[in-house]
Amino acid sequence: MQDELPELIKKIFAKKNITDDQDIFRFLHPKLETLPHPLNMKGMQQAVECIVKGVEEGDDIVIWGDYDVDGTTATSLLVNFFRKLGIEPYWHIPNRLKDGYGLNTEVFEQLKSTHSIDNFLLITVDCGISNSKEVAEILELGGKVIVTDHHQLPLGDLPGCVILNPNQDGCDFASEKLAGVGVAFYLAAAVRSELEKHGYFRENEKPNLKDYLGFVALGTVSDLVEITETNRILVRAGMEALPNSSIPGLRYLLESAGLYGSLLTSEDIGFSIGPRINAAGRLGTADVAVELMTCDNHTSGSDLAKKLESYNERRKSICSDNLETALTLIQRGNLAEKSAIVVAGDFHPGVIGIVASKIVDVYRKPTVVFAEEGENESTSYKGSGRSVEGIDLLGCLHNCSHLLGKYGGHAMAAGLSIAANNIESFREEMSRHVELEKMNILQGAQGNTLNIECNLDEVMSGNAIDYLMKLEPFGPENEKPTFTDPKAQVISCKAIGGLGQHLQLIVRGKYSNYRAIGFGLGERISEVKKQPERSITFTPMMNRFRGSVEWQLRIIEI
């Protein structure tokens, strides 16, 4: 096997400590048939029995999701799945700006009353695990509840309901790190299998599970969950299915992004498709994203895609303004000197996660951005955090919990709240715990060390690019490799962007020259022009423009 690989790819596998030929083959060619069985997930048998009984007895099925990409794709997956079974479910996505996260008893009662729902089966997706009070209140209304989630379990138990969460003690899926949409997919797979045993598909069309893997790819990559072996299989299959998806809503979504029929990368999901879905939720209208991903009419699909695109453009404008404000506050307060960046201000609460992510791109430090939610010292601030590879953000928040209100998430992304008078103490504590994490990395824990020294042409050859695509999807625990050419020759460069914040270059290759972009490196233009031969650290990047595709370099350091 290894004899067939380009030398560059061999070095990458060596860095990953994958040296056995069979392991390399399995990594390059992930197979759906090797996925763990759905019934290995704790609570799955009870969940399936509950749903099959509900289907047979004609219960009203209600799906309650979250407003981010993971939650909306999980909701859309189950809505499409139940419709394929001949069942029209009710669904609800909270308004991020008004309702907040998770279950809301008052809103559920309104939904129940509006649609004259009597005997109901409520299925939460990507939320619910921290809503013990609300679950108890909803159960008192006379229905049944299945909570499907992937977030860390809080102290205490959920009363009287079925739970699907790989983080439960004794769950064989604990190491799989599924996204919320991954849990929803496994639920659909198990329900289909059980209904087949009941002879349900003698009169009904059996859903093709591969049709739903596009949702899994979108939610898993966008939620920054770890690319474990199971997630890698699911996402890779989803990325292959998405460009020609048979689900109308996904087709309209990809068409609006100019990606339908195209080869997809994880960056396409993370920077193009995911933000489109998220835009609606960030502006308090996440239901539009679900309406699009569950529609079956071309006219309505086209209209919804245009509406989503308009939300995305508005989100970009708000985000750009908020980012500029945040960077100014960071510079004025010398906040970048800390091991973690914590900034608070008059930000739009729907975009603080994106702003935090962009600050991480600039400073490469864990970042928390807080949005003001009031005008006095006792008012809580709403925050969103993003981390860097190797630093467990949620673990750091656990260590600062005495200063926080609510918080939750995972190693790379989290949400939290805090009182105004605790922000300065949190900034100091957060930096201290990040510094301790960094010390642990230096003492033996592995961060992202997947960098290979080589020349540009080795990476940009067609054969190497083909194999690099086979390493997809990239994300936490499967970081995209970076490469360093110590003697690259810059032919030309200029600063671009509204503030000249980015660097656009042409770099000499042996047989052809390569276009390159360095995001956030615009301030380096003078020194690059003065000394054009220099070491550059980069990764290949697919550049799409007016239907054409060109591979170029994304410069990380120069």
What about the largest sheet? 5 strands, parallel
Outline, from the CA principal axes?
Answer: globular
Figure out the total of helices: 19
Indicate the proportion of strand residues. Answer: 15-25%
Radius of gyration: 24 Å
> Which regions contain 5 or more consecutive residues with pLDDT less than 50?
444-448
- Averaging pLDDT over every residue, what do you get? 90
If you had to describe this structure to a student in words, what would you say it looks like?
The protein has helices at 7-15, 21-28, 44-57, 69-84, 105-114, 132-139, 180-197, 213-222, 229-241, 248-256, 266-282, 287-293, 298-332, 352-363, 393-399, 423-442, 456-460, 462-470, 525-530; strands spanning 60-64, 90-92, 120-125, 144-148, 162-164, 341-345, 367-371, 380-386, 404-409, 413-419, 451-453, 482-496, 502-507, 514-518, 533-545, 548-557. Strand 13 and strand 14 form a beta hairpin. With 558 residues, it is of the alpha/beta class. The chain is 42% helix and 19% strand. The radius of gyration is 24 Å and the shape is globular. The protein starts with 6 loop residues before the first helix and ends with a strand. The chain contains 19 helices and 16 strands. Helix 11 (266-282) crosses helix 13 (298-332). The model is unreliable at 444-448 (pLDDT under 50). The chain has a 5-stranded parallel β-sheet, with helices on both faces. It has a 5-stranded mixed β-sheet with strand order 6-7-8-10-9, sandwiched between helices.
